[in-house]
Amino acid sequence: MSFTETLEDREFPADAARPAAQRRGPVAIVNASRSTIGSSSGVVPVLLCLVLVFGCAEGSATSQGVEVDRLEVMTAPSSRIDRMFAHFPASARGLSRRDTTGAAKWVEETLSSMTLRRKIGQLIVARLALDRTDAQPRSSDTRAVTEHGVGGFLISRILPPERVAEEAARLQSLSDVPLFIAADYERGVGRFANNFTELPSAMAIGASRDTVAAEAAGRLTAVECRAIGVNLIFAPVVDVNNNPDNPIINIRSYGSDPELVASNANAFVRGAASAGVMTTLKHFPGHGNSEIDTHTSIATIDGSIESITATELRPYELAVETQDVPAVMVAHLRVPALDSAPVPASMSPKVMRFLRAMVGDRTVLFTDDVRMGALQNDFPLARRAVGPLLAGADVILTPEQIAPAIDAIERAVRDGRVSVDRIDQSVRRVLAAKAALGMHRGAGPDFELMNDLAVLPYGQAIADSIALESLTWYRGSNQRADRGGRQLLIQLSNFAESESIDEAMRVLANELAIPGSDELRVVGAPSPGDLSWPGRQQDYAGVTVALHLRLRSGRGSAGIVDGQQELLDRVFALGVPTTVLVFGNPYVADDLPAAERVLIGYDQTVATVTGAARVLAGEADATGVLPVALRSDGGIGR
User: Fold this and answer.
1) pLDDT tens profile 263-276
2) Cβ 372 vs Cβ 331: under 8 Å
3) How does DSSP classify residue 365?
4) Sign of the C-alpha dihedral, residues 402, 403, 408, 412?
5) Maximum pairwise Cα distance, the chain
6) Are 327 and 366 in contact (CB under 8 A)?
7) Catalytic residue among 141, 368, 394, 530
């Protein structure tokens, strides 16, 4: 089965109102016609001096379930996408771009009414201090609006959607100027514990070779964002992950082919725009060819201007050629091909001028988080606040202290280092972006839509279908493995205290459960008892090993941890049929030469582990294609 097949007539079971992770059963396959990424169309080198100009079927929703009509293959991509959302509530199907009547007038009137300090506040997006353990709103968030007039907030991905909606509504009601409510929803709004949708990773979408999946992911994310009041998504990631040792981009990238990345990112932006939510291409000029996590220290992207243009800049070039680019996030990276000075791109006038020439005057340029080690190790807060504005950025992202950051920028204006005109340019872009979302005519969550979406996991069929289409055989085939006799399931994780991995392990164990078989779970380094487990029990008919390999900011590695390779070697030495499931970092497949069968899933979502279990059971085929070049593979694709 694949994402391109017809959605079968299906009625969600009565327990569908429970979180998707607690349900079992066949995956619903969403219809869409495959859009295959072909070979590169060629790259035109871009020099520094070059200025680049770059009706739905009705479904019924009740507390008992959802009736999903049979979907036919459509010819127009937009119609196919509409059909995929046909079973959603009417409040979700009717979403479109916002009403922008009177936008230009509102921008100029608002700008002219603001004091200098309020203008500066618009150029800061604060980190929302509220977390999921707080019973009441944080006073610091209130002061950020009422005293400092910030331009918006970045929320935590793990904050429950209902809490996001409540806080978004509260903060919008306090603000004289509508707020950006932003989130790093690279993989959707939901998590395993609620009925909003947790999508497979960008690399999973790249493995599917289906840009319709990318567009559906963008639209689904935007629909759920609209419900809870999020109007700005810091996604898609358009980094080309051409370095296998990259510890922080990895599965967040669509792959190592610039054309694959560009096509999928473009489709995601198109899907999100169709539901009226702003997206952000990140991390300019490109974070894929790095072995350093900029959360900890500065990284350098080497290469000539020709190679940088052909790889890192290609997704941006294609994006601005085909549609508006609402926003770009600039990374704290050194890129000598663009600026030989030892400064990060986020503080480089040369890089910012180059980017502005590429994307045009309306695009809002955000910095990455200025608290990251790549900046904080070398620059005080005042420099991290003023430096990017001097270089040409529009918005400073999440300084650790709001008032001192505003003070520093205000001093720079008073001292003549930053002109009022320069501040006005950025404020005008910010206000115009907000008006383009119709925020001047009303901002905040759509509680009717939120309540409709919270009833059932409407987006799970899309997530399941993307996950199933992404699963990739690195070694082995879709031939069903013999699961007779006593089996051993070993689940290893490189990430401690992860609720999502715990849930993925639970679901996989349930899906693969065979009476009389054993399971060993190891988080982090194995104990001596863990290492001796395979040696004590050698009468297994087969072994399945699941590697749950999650990225973590600041850790510096995305692979297995010390001691786990020794445990794997002992498993392989048993001499019994062994299948390894890689959930996450696909480059680890290079380190498994003794494994007879290796199936790659590109994240630890419930959709992915459930799809992998179906493949092992012979209920579905894995049809994904490697979107990255592994060392032992020598190229993309299997």
Assistant:
1) 999 999 999 999 99
2) no
3) E
4) positive
5) 79
6) yes
7) 368
**Catalytic pick among 295, 332, 440, 548:** 295
Contact 277, 227 (CB under 8 A): no
**Sign (positive/negative) of CA torsion 266, 271, 275, 279?**
negative
DSSP assignment string, 463-480: HHHHHHHH-EEEES-SSP
Using a 10 angstrom Cβ sphere, with 0-12 exposed, 13-18 middle and 19 or more buried, the burial of residue 221 is buried
Rounded to 5 degrees, φ, ψ at 105 are -65, -45
The two structure tokens encoding residue 637: 């694709």
Question: What local confidence, expressed as pLDDT, does residue 313 receive?
Answer: 97
Contacts of 45 (CB under 8 A, 6+ apart): 305, 306, 309, 310
Average pLDDT over residues 305-312: 96
Residue 363 near residue 284, CB atoms below 8 Å: no
CA distance 69 to 427: 47
- Torsion angle defined by CA atoms of residues 338, 342, 345 and 346, in that order, rounded to the nearest 10 degrees: -150
Spatial distance between the Cα atoms of 236 and 277, rounded to a whole number of angstroms: 13
Reply yes or no on whether 502 is catalytic.
Answer: no
Q: What is the pLDDT of residues 159-200, one digit of tens each?
A: 999 999 999 999 999 999 999 999 999 999 999 989 999 999
Report how far apart, in Å, the C-alpha atoms of 85 and of each of 32, 74, 89, 187, 582 are: 11, 13, 9, 18, 31
Token couple for 269: 């932006």
DSSP code for 69: P
Work out the pLDDT band at 247, boundaries 50, 70, 90: confident
pLDDT digits (tens, 9 = 90+) for 318-328: 999 999 999 99
Q: How far is the C-alpha of 116 from the C-alpha of 422, rounded, in Å?
A: 12
Catalytic site includes residue 148: no
pTM of the model: 0.88
SS3 sequence, 90-140? HHHHCCCCCCCCCHHHHHHHHHHCCCHHHHHHHCEEEECCCCCCCCCCCHH
For the chain, the straight-line distance linking the first and the last C-alpha, in angstroms and rounded, comes to 18
Residue bearing tokens 């503080």? 347
Task: Give the number of residues written for the chain.
Answer: 638
The sheet carrying 66-68 orders its strands as 10-11, 66-68, 60-61
On the question of pLDDT at 330 being above 80, the answer is: yes
- Contacts (Cβ under 8 Å, ≥6 apart) of 87: 59, 66, 67, 68, 69, 458, 461
Judge contact between 365 and 395, C-beta under 8 A: yes
Residue 143 burial (10 A CB sphere; 0-12, 13-18, 19+)? middle
